[in-house]
Design a protein that fits this description.
CATH architecture of the largest domain in chain A: 2-Layer Sandwich
Strand content of chain A: 15-25%
Largest sheet of chain A: 3 strands, antiparallel
Distance between the termini of chain B: 34 Å
Number of domains of chain B: 2
CATH topology of the largest domain in chain A: Alpha-Beta Plaits
Strand content of chain B: under 5%
Number of helices of chain A: 3
Order of helices and strands of chain A: HEEHEEHEEE
Radius of gyration of chain B: 18 Å
Order of helices and strands of chain B: HHHH
Shape of chain A: elongated
Largest interface: A-B, 8 and 7 residues
Helix content of chain B: over 70%
Strand order of the largest sheet of chain A: 3-4-6
Number of strands of chain B: 0
Oligomer: heterodimer
């Protein structure tokens, strides 16, 4: 007998919570709120600014002198879980010593899972996440990007 | 269109179809209700059911398959059986229109 009372109470309480949920959406239907959270996306493209930690795509940060921080160590390539990064290095003669310098940092945007491991593990803080999210293209080759800009070299400042 | 078909079946079987809304004894109210043509009653009731269906769609998330099965076998089917017994009792005692 107690089981049946509990069962009926369960059903009634369940239906009451369902009606409470419907009351919330019903109220949203009839009232208009001052702060509407949804943005009208294609119409507000000019003023659209995403939040600071937004993961749009991986970029290599360059300063005004067109210098980046990438030493070509390859740690990001080792840490990438599905191999979306390829590091191509070349050896350069600097002050008579042969040094390894980054030639091309190839980033496959089509395969990237946006896990942020490359950004996190880079010892020279060369990579970051950019704000651009409109990546749709007609040709898949445009999704394979070279992250270091042409003519840019490793910054001469001493970095930790 | 699917929603319209289901709503019209529900209206015809459960909600009185195209009949106007009458209450026992409120003769003036019933007389006013009779002026509205039955087509409007039918379409209005169907629209109301469709609004309820859309309201459900806004509010509730989808159920997992195991939640759906426990809902059916543990709650809906027993209630249905009890409903059948009650209907049999009411028919026997002739407590219906």
């Amino acid at each position: 007998m107690k089981g049946i009372i509990k069962y009926i109470k369960e059903i009634i309480l369940g239906v009451i919570t369902l009606i409470k949920g419907m009351a919330v959406t019903g109220r949203y239907f009839f009232t208009s709120y001052k702060t509407i959270v949804t943005q009208k996306y294609p119409e507000n493209r000019k003023e659209l600014v995403m939040f600071d930690r937004f993961k749009g795509e991986v970029i290599m940060t360059h300063n005004e002198k067109n210098e980046h921080n990438c030493t070509g160590c390859g740690i990001c390539e080792m840490n990438c879980p599905n191999g979306s990064i390829e590091i191509i290095t070349k050896t350069e003669e600097v002050d008579g010593k042969k040094k390894k310098v980054i030639d091309k940092h190839i980033y496959h945007l089509s395969m990237c899972t946006f896990c942020a491991l490359c950004v996190k593990t880079c010892p020279s803080i060369a990579l970051a996440f950019g704000q651009n999210f409109e990546h749709a293209v007609y040709d898949r080759k445009q999704l394979t990007k070279v992250l270091n800009q042409p003519g840019s070299v490793l910054t001469k400042e001493i970095k930790e | 269109m699917n929603m319209f078909i289901v709503a019209s079946i529900a209206v015809t079987v459960f909600l009185g179809g195209w009949m106007p809304l009458h209450f026992w004894g409120f003769d003036a109210f019933n007389h006013v209700m009779d002026f509205i043509p039955p087509v409007i009653w039918y379409l209005g009731k169907t629209a109301f059911i469709i609004f309820i269906m859309m309201w459900f769609k806004w509010t509730f998330p989808r159920l997992r398959i195991d939640q759906l099965l426990t809902l059916e076998w543990k709650y809906l089917l027993p209630i249905n059986l009890v409903n059948t017994v009650i209907i049999a009792f009411l028919t026997m005692m002739k407590w219906h229109f």
